[in-house]
TrEMBL record:
Highest taxon of source: Bacteria
Membrane-spanning ranges: 7-29
Signal peptide feature range: none
One family name in Pfam for this protein: PLDc_2
SUPFAM superfamilies in alphabetical order: Phospholipase D/nuclease (SSF56024)
Name of this protein: Phosphatidylserine/phosphatidylglycerophosphate/ cardiolipin synthase family protein
Keywords: Membrane, Transmembrane, Transmembrane helix
Residue ranges occupied by any PLD phosphodiesterase domain in the UniProt entry: 156-183
Length: 470
């Protein structure tokens, strides 16, 4: 081997070690530092929450089906008159992404001031992406978070994971739902993904709606973060140089989605009064976050006395996360999640599989046996308290992603979420062991592809080494 080749090989080896240490070592150390930095004043106690005087005029609704999910978003954007704030983990280059971006475009044409915050890894922001059609508008600002960073690899763990839409002072939507056909279009050829949207409405048009303002404050913190960078504009995008192409594609897609969109959803939702509510979110402007949402959820779990129903597509609890769950609490923890057969995230399921027996010592677990998977992130307490948002029950959501959860005490909302849980419990099996279930004549265990079964079990052996990044 020549001297030059040896230098190149050595340099690549050193750089590879640097990347591994940065991605794993730095992140692991910083995560443990942040784990100990949460202050008491950043967490609301259950007693403080339930004893506060009800003073909210805003109302709240839940949308829980793929049917109407895209139309709900079009309705919200269409209602904007002055300001539209959107944070979205993923806007697909597909039918739902096209219709979503087109509705933003039409809002901009009406003169609405638009701020759009997107994640770099999970969105196309190239010259010919749908987003480039918005580059012609002065009243549209787009910021991007994350992406490849060769000099500071640890920064690649930073992710915008929120799914927020805030319309003027009138509406706030928080969700776990991505703008992709599997999440938005029932007629997609792929297996659809079940998720939840929680919507706050300022029905009385108050000048300073409490919850919507809390959501705006959080959004503005994300927008002002050092890691949120302006998206490059492409004035020569083919969508702009041949504007008829975009219009024609929208027209064609509208025809193709005639059974999925067109009927209003927002105006037909059941809105319930809120006794109390607040907006919880992870720290901002930090590469590794304070796990405030997880700490808030588990604080309520520890302080409650009845059933605490946790719904998450992935359940991978690292030791730092488990430290927040007090061993002597009185909560009856119930977990609702995906099974090996329908989980789309092999890595996350491998981490869950490794620790499933330990989880069973703390909780009753139900796994969905269906072709479609669940992507819901929520909890329900017997006190009529509901939490819905973007937060998965895993380390990546706890420490590395921007996450939010709207926590509400509302009898009507709690009953509706319970009906959603019951619907999926009726398609689930209760877990008794790592790969075993309680017998249920009404629900059959869904078979697992052999390759997937081997892969998940193999990965689960090594999962303790990378579980904190799942």
């Amino acid at each position: 081997m020549s001297k030059t080749m040896k230098i190149i090989a050595t340099s690549l080896l050193v750089y590879s070690l640097y990347v591994l240490i940065s991605l794993f070592g730095y992140s692991f150390i910083k995560m443990n530092v942040q784990n100990k930095s949460i202050l008491d004043e950043e967490i609301v106690s259950l007693d403080e929450f339930t004893s506060s005087e009800p003073n909210l005029t805003e109302t709240v609704a839940l949308h829980s089906t793929v049917e109407g999910a895209l139309q709900l978003r079009l309705d919200l954007i269409r209602s904007a008159k002055e300001e539209l704030y959107i944070s979205q983990y993923s806007i697909g280059h597909d039918k739902s992404g096209l219709m979503f971006v087109n509705e933003i475009k039409e809002a901009a044409q009406r003169g609405v001031k638009v701020k759009l915050l997107v994640n770099r890894f999970s969105n196309s922001v190239s010259k010919n992406s749908y987003l480039s059609v918005l580059d012609e508008f002065e009243n549209v600002e787009i910021k991007v978070v994350g992406g490849i960073n060769l000099l500071q690899p640890w920064k690649m763990n930073n992710v915008i994971h929120d799914k927020l839409i805030i319309v003027d002072d009138e509406y706030l939507l928080s969700s776990g739902r991505n703008v992709n056909d599997r999440f938005q279009v029932p007629s997609t050829k792929e297996a659809v993904v079940n998720d939840l949207d929680i919507i706050v409405q300022n029905g009385k048009h108050e000048k300073s709606p409490k919850i919507i303002n809390e959501g705006k404050a959080y959004y503005n913190e994300l927008w002002a973060a050092d890691y949120a960078k302006n998206k490059k504009k492409y004035p020569n995008s083919r969508w702009l140089t041949t504007s008829s192409d975009f219009s024609n594609e929208v027209s064609q897609t509208t025809k193709e989605l005639k059974n999925d969109i067109g009927q209003p959803v927002l105006s037909n939702l059941d809105f319930y009064p809120m006794d109390r509510a607040f907006f919880s979110y992870n720290s901002t402007n930090e590469w590794v976050k304070k796990p405030i949402v997880w700490a808030q959820m588990t604080a309520f779990m520890n302080q409650g006395t009845g059933k605490f129903k946790l719904i998450s597509p992935y359940v991978v609890l690292t030791n730092p996360m488990q430290d927040y769950i007090k061993a002597n609490n009185n909560a009856q923890l119930e977990i609702y999640t995906n099974s090996m057969s329908n989980s789309p995230n092999v890595l996350a399921f491998s981490g869950y599989l490794f620790q499933k027996n330990k989880l069973l010592e703390k909780a009753d677990i139900w796994e969905l046996q269906a072709e479609n998977s669940n992507h819901q992130k929520a909890f329900l307490m017997e006190e009529g308290i509901v939490g819905v948002g973007s937060m998965n029950s895993d380390s990546r959501s706890a420490f590395f992603s921007s996450e939010n959860m709207l926590i509400v005490q509302s009898e009507g909302l709690a009953k509706e979420l319970q009906s959603v849980i019951t619907r999926y419990e009726n398609q689930s099996l209760k877990v008794t062991g790592r790969t075993t279930y309680e017998e249920n004549r009404s629900v059959m265990e869904k078979p697992v592809n052999l390759f997937k079964k081997i892969l998940v079990n193999l990965l689960s052996v090594f999962s303790p080494f990378f579980r904190f990044l799942l």
